């Protein structure tokens, strides 16, 4: 694949450049994407709007994830300005094409059979709050986030500045979520249990991640998640690893999560710099606070064990308002300071690039560029290598790491066993 990344990072294996290109450049729409979904690829959440010759649009469901030649995965992102496109059919196989030339063979992650099941009252898994992310099952039974409703004192919401997905909308209504109320309806837990039993019978599934919108107090957050942990654990038995991705809760509540059946937790701090955290994540800042967030990550390590606690970050918030705008070297230094501090306390940090979405403070051009993201990943890899600390598979693995690069670095550069 011809790309400036190849010359900038000539020491990196081609597989890493290839995935980074797919993540950042995406592919133009082609009929092969629609064919792949109809032939069994797991569908993405955002369909493609195809412009027809009569000026109307047709909605086409496209796959969620590519399956790369090295066994890894990458998000299918459609950008009609991309020089890349997918050709081929389900029968002959698919290929990635650039300027008319095939540059790689490629596939798609398949839809698991449990996605066709319905609960006893006829509800689809997605409407019960369950979706497939490669081999990971994401449970989001309460997507509405209270930070969207919480005033920041200046007449604006307290949501995280890059977030466009936590508002109370049709999905939260469909799930019966009541604003301000931690508990969910009895039907929600019952349906969730039914779906998760079917999930546990699927050999392709390896781990479960519980997530959702935030409550405005850590106590309420724990009250929200505890019955979800119990329901999921009861349904999946001992086969699947279950991780709680709530906001940070106290050590005592982390212990309650564990007693309820969680194996690990992930409390996402989002940005390390104190002022940026306060400005970019006003809800988290007001309801928990940075110092307590970090203290509770360490308390969770005492409960779940070293490297059984994670924290996700959005790399690139440092380069744009709100808050002080850093230079590229300042951003890298701040992120690395955070990563090293957390790793040395047994916490696993993970970094996705800032992807501007609609209805946020960011414009499309505000996103982190591919070269800087790779530069960051090289530096993070060196720190993991020094500590002999590959990213553990419970939090993210080659079969679900569709928007991150850490596991790909670990595999490609020898810190973790290769798959396939
Ligand atoms: S906690 Fe932040 S990122 Fe998560 S849903 Fe709420 S506003 Fe969005």
The gist of it:
By secondary structure, the protein is α/β, with parallel strands linked by helices. The chain has 2 domains: 4-108, no CATH class; 113-412, TIM Barrel. The chain has helices spanning 4-8, 14-25, 31-38, 170-174, 186-200, 218-236, 251-260, 274-280, 282-287, 290-304, 328-344, 370-386, 406-412; strands at residues 48-51, 57-60, 65-67, 73-75, 84-89, 93-98, 101-108, 130-133, 136-139, 207-210, 241-244, 264-266, 309-315, 347-353.
Summarize this structure as a short list of keywords or feature phrases:
single chain; 420 residues; alpha/beta; TIM Barrel; 2 domains; 7-stranded mixed sheet; 5-stranded antiparallel sheet; 14 strands; binds iron/sulfur cluster
Q: What does this protein look like?
A:
The protein has 420 residues and is α/β, with parallel strands linked by helices. The protein has helices at 4-8, 14-25, 31-38, 170-174, 186-200, 218-236, 251-260, 274-280, 282-287, 290-304, 328-344, 370-386, 406-412, and strands at 48-51, 57-60, 65-67, 73-75, 84-89, 93-98, 101-108, 130-133, 136-139, 207-210, 241-244, 264-266, 309-315, 347-353. The protein has two domains: 4-108, no CATH class; 113-412, TIM Barrel (Alpha-Beta Barrel). It contains 13 helices and 14 strands. The protein has a seven-stranded mixed sheet with strand order 8-9-10-11-12-13-14, covered by helices on one side. A five-stranded antiparallel sheet has the order 4-3-7-6-5. The chain has a two-stranded antiparallel ribbon with strand order 1-2. β3 (65-67) and β4 (73-75) form a beta hairpin. α5 crosses α6 (218-236). The longest helix has 19 residues, at 218-236. The structure holds iron/sulfur cluster (SF4). The site of iron/sulfur cluster has 9 residues, from loops.
